[in-house]
């Protein structure tokens, strides 16, 4: 295959992956709708009364809830979408004969691919499929931004010719995937805690784990992500900057916001370890940290001119 063939295959794979991910997102939304419907089925069955109600209840015991079926369908579609997007990333790399993160389109594509793979691994290990609507919806949004910044496959600008770029971006993207999982757990924590305080926990929030379990998951994923962010953004990044621009740190907007993200997450971990900030306050700080990460990842390149503007 020629470089043009690989580039065309990449475009088809990414487009197909985007469509499949959209179907996965819709499957998980439908799952939530059926969760609400299934929550009122026992009350409707009981209206029949007597032996009829018992017979219907017994017959329903052998029928798998539609929400469970849709959950499995959504996960399966996410697996397919992740495979297609990874194929798109690899073929994009072969088309341009370089690592596929030299511009905003490639950043978005590779970032979503890594986030989906990390999410699916965690689903297998710790059963975090309850954050599926957030992860798939967020992935779709980032892919939409990536497509809006699409550029054909081509060579890197000179500043990007360094293996430290590979290390720097790979670590940052994996950290971002873990931050996404932690932010999802933190958001659901806040929603469920508020519902519990009001005494009105609906069927959807009853499906997610206890708030203490979500708090622990958020802490663990943020802790690992913070280590990777520290290495990728504040160690490998400056080394690459020295190779590219002759200095380790120059207060470029991208560098500043990467440092702001580091400070917020460092504050999150420090507050939990020393001041006992768990639960609601920790979740709010985690969401602030994720917002700074998103601005560092996308907003700076779009809205704030700097040395990283070539990556648009």
TrEMBL record:
<dbReference type="Pfam" id="PF01578">
    <property type="entry name" value="Cytochrom_C_asm"/>
</dbReference>
<feature type="transmembrane region" description="Helical">
    <location>
        <begin position="223"/>
        <end position="243"/>
    </location>
</feature>
<feature type="transmembrane region" description="Helical">
    <location>
        <begin position="283"/>
        <end position="304"/>
    </location>
</feature>
<dbReference type="InterPro" id="IPR045062">
    <property type="entry name" value="Cyt_c_biogenesis_CcsA/CcmC"/>
</dbReference>
<keyword id="KW-0201">Cytochrome c-type biogenesis</keyword>
<feature type="transmembrane region" description="Helical">
    <location>
        <begin position="73"/>
        <end position="95"/>
    </location>
</feature>
<feature type="transmembrane region" description="Helical">
    <location>
        <begin position="162"/>
        <end position="191"/>
    </location>
</feature>
<dbReference type="InterPro" id="IPR002541">
    <property type="entry name" value="Cyt_c_assembly"/>
</dbReference>
<keyword id="KW-0472">Membrane</keyword>
<keyword id="KW-0812">Transmembrane</keyword>
<protein>
    <recommendedName>
        <fullName>Cytochrome c assembly protein domain-containing protein</fullName>
    </recommendedName>
</protein>
<feature type="transmembrane region" description="Helical">
    <location>
        <begin position="130"/>
        <end position="150"/>
    </location>
</feature>
<feature type="transmembrane region" description="Helical">
    <location>
        <begin position="12"/>
        <end position="34"/>
    </location>
</feature>
<feature type="domain" description="Cytochrome c assembly protein">
    <location>
        <begin position="101"/>
        <end position="308"/>
    </location>
</feature>
<keyword id="KW-1133">Transmembrane helix</keyword>
<feature type="transmembrane region" description="Helical">
    <location>
        <begin position="107"/>
        <end position="123"/>
    </location>
</feature>
<dbReference type="InterPro" id="IPR017562">
    <property type="entry name" value="Cyt_c_biogenesis_CcsA"/>
</dbReference>
<feature type="transmembrane region" description="Helical">
    <location>
        <begin position="255"/>
        <end position="271"/>
    </location>
</feature>
């Amino acid at each position: 295959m020629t470089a043009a063939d690989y580039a065309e295959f990449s475009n088809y794979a990414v487009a197909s992956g985007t469509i499949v991910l959209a179907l996965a997102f819709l499957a998980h939304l439908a799952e939530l709708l059926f969760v609400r419907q299934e929550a009122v089925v026992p009350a409707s069955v009981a209206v029949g009364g007597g032996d009829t109600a018992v017979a219907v209840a017994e017959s329903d015991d052998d029928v798998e809830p539609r929400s469970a079926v849709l959950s499995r369908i959504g996960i399966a579609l996410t697996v397919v979408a992740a495979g297609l997007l990874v194929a798109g990333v690899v073929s994009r790399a072969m088309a341009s004969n370089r690592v596929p993160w030299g511009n905003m389109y490639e950043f978005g594509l590779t970032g979503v691919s890594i986030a989906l793979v990390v999410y699916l691994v965690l689903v297998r290990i710790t059963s975090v499929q309850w954050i599926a609507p957030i992860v798939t919806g967020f992935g779709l949004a980032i892919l939409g931004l990536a497509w809006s910044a699409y550029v054909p496959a081509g060579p890197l600008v000179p500043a990007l010719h360094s293996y430290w770029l590979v290390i720097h971006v790979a670590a940052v993207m994996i950290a971002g995937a873990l931050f996404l999982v932690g932010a999802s757990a933190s958001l659901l924590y806040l929603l469920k805690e508020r519902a519990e305080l009001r005494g009105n926990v609906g069927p959807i929030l009853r499906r997610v784990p206890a708030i203490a379990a979500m708090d622990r998951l958020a802490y663990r994923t943020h802790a690992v992500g913070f280590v990777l962010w520290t290495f990728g953004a504040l160690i490998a990044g400056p080394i690459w900057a020295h190779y590219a621009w002759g200095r380790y740190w120059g207060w470029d907007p991208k560098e500043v916001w990467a440092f702001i993200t580091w400070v917020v997450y460092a504050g999150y971990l420090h507050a939990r370890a020393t001041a006992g900030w768990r639960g609601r306050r920790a979740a709010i700080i985690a969401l602030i940290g994720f917002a700074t990460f998103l601005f560092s990842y996308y907003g700076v390149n779009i809205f704030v001119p700097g040395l990283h503007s070539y990556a648009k």
